[in-house]
């Protein structure tokens, strides 16, 4: 029995098209405003951390474990207990961690901007003085990584993502032949948007590969390292250790934060790297800042405490958002599963579901969804320069809407996917 749209007769497709169009017009008449454009925690998730706001009594001196007065200047690279917390979270040593402000994206931007201004440890000259600077961008990937490169005039080279991580055959070939390729963006665990966790082999190949640029850097954005959806956690091989074992100890910058653990606008961010990299970085930071917000670091550590408490806190997050992921996956299966017009990721952590439509359909699907009141991440945003070469990837962000809103939004999305797919099939017949 033929079930996929491609096997239907034209008259069957026309009848289905008419039925779906009537359903679509009914949704349009509701004047909905449903936003699934960004991966934001919902209000119920933010509520989980409200206790942190009252955890520092105003009548006491706010001192860290080493006696540092957190209200005053100093503490360039973070409180000792904050460094220890992130070290445990990332599987590195406290001496390999610097803890800074509220945003890991800010740390990434600063690290790349400093490389353009001054180079990195081992650079012969600032990257901005080179004829060109290029970065590898595994895609679909994180749009804000790409925006940083675009603003700093760094040329982006798209590398396909596979179920194991970036296409390493392509990565190894490119970095071996071009010394203007200075780095690669990676979201190695529960990747944005595909939910992929890099395999051990991918980590090892990234660590040991030969690069023509002696100052090549891996920007390892470990944003979702503790963001599990189930009790079965993906395991990610330690990249800092892998680089050290491969004889390239300075190759990686690891970034992480509590942005979606506590409050996205008021979290704490950290950078992990080799001790030599951090010594080099401290000299630059000493001019840039007198010190980070140590009061915020202190209240985070007193609230989250250690890995055991962090784990329990993240289980509360999962209890709120996993039903939303389950709802999206169920509706995609019931609405599209038998049509052979789309595929989607089934992540075990992170914040997104990646939907791949038929080639040439994503932009039109996003446009029609918007007309029916559903705002999605722009089609193409998961690729450098906003250009998906196959125009098929759509990032779904299930966390912020309520279950009721989410159900309605995915129903509308499924109708749009079917309508645009039928249009494409009929045009190709």
UniProtKB/TrEMBL annotation:
<dbReference type="InterPro" id="IPR015421">
    <property type="entry name" value="PyrdxlP-dep_Trfase_major"/>
</dbReference>
<dbReference type="Pfam" id="PF12897">
    <property type="entry name" value="Asp_aminotransf"/>
</dbReference>
<dbReference type="GO" id="GO:0008483">
    <property type="term" value="F:transaminase activity"/>
</dbReference>
<keyword id="KW-0808">Transferase</keyword>
<protein>
    <submittedName>
        <fullName>Aminotransferase</fullName>
    </submittedName>
</protein>
<dbReference type="InterPro" id="IPR015422">
    <property type="entry name" value="PyrdxlP-dep_Trfase_small"/>
</dbReference>
<dbReference type="InterPro" id="IPR024551">
    <property type="entry name" value="AspAT_Ic"/>
</dbReference>
<dbReference type="InterPro" id="IPR015424">
    <property type="entry name" value="PyrdxlP-dep_Trfase"/>
</dbReference>
<keyword id="KW-0032">Aminotransferase</keyword>
């Amino acid at each position: 029995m033929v079930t996929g749209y491609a096997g239907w007769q034209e008259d069957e497709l026309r009848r289905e098209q008419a039925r779906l169009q009537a359903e679509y017009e009914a949704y349009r008449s509701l004047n909905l405003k449903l936003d699934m454009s960004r991966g934001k925690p919902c209000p119920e998730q933010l509520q989980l951390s409200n206790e942190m706001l009252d955890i520092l009594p105003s009548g006491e001196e706010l001192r860290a474990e080493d006696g540092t007065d957190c209200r005053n200047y100093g503490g360039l690279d973070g409180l000792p207990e904050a460094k220890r917390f992130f070290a445990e979270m990332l599987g590195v040593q406290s001496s390999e961690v610097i803890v800074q402000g509220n945003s890991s994206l800010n740390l990434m931007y600063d690290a790349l901007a400093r490389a353009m201004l001054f180079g990195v440890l081992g650079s012969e000259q600032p990257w901005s003085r080179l004829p060109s600077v290029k970065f590898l961008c595994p895609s679909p990937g994180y749009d804000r990584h790409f925006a940083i490169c675009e603003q700093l005039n760094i040329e982006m080279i798209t590398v396909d993502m596979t179920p194991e991580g970036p296409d390493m055959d392509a990565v190894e070939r490119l970095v071996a032949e071009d010394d203007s390729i200075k780095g690669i963006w990676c979201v190695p665990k529960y990747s944005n948007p595909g939910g992929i966790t890099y395999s051990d082999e991918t980590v090892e190949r990234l660590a040991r590969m030969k690069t023509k640029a002696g100052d090549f850097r891996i920007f390892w954005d470990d944003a979702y390292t503790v963001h599990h959806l189930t009790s079965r956690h993906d395991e990610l091989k330690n990249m800092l250790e892998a680089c050290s074992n491969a004889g390239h100890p300075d190759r990686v910058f690891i970034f992480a934060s509590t942005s979606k653990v506590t409050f996205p606008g008021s979290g704490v961010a950290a950078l992990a790297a080799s001790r030599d990299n951090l010594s080099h970085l401290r000299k630059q930071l000493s001019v840039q800042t007198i010190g980070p917000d140590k009061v915020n670091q202190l209240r985070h550590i007193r609230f989250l405490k250690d890995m055991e408490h962090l784990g329990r806190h993240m289980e509360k997050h999962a209890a709120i958002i996993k039903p939303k992921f389950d709802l999206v996956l169920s509706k995609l299966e019931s609405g599209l599963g038998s049509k052979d017009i789309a595929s989607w990721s089934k992540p075990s952590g992170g914040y997104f579901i990646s939907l791949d439509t038929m080639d040439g359909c994503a932009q039109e699907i996003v446009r029609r969804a918007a007309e029916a009141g559903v705002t999605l991440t722009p089609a193409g945003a998961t690729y450098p320069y906003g250009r998906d070469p196959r125009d098929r990837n759509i990032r779904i962000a299930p966390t912020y809407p309520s279950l009721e809103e989410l159900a309605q939004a995915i129903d509308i999305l499924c109708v749009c996917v079917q309508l645009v797919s039928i249009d494409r099939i009929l045009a190709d017949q």
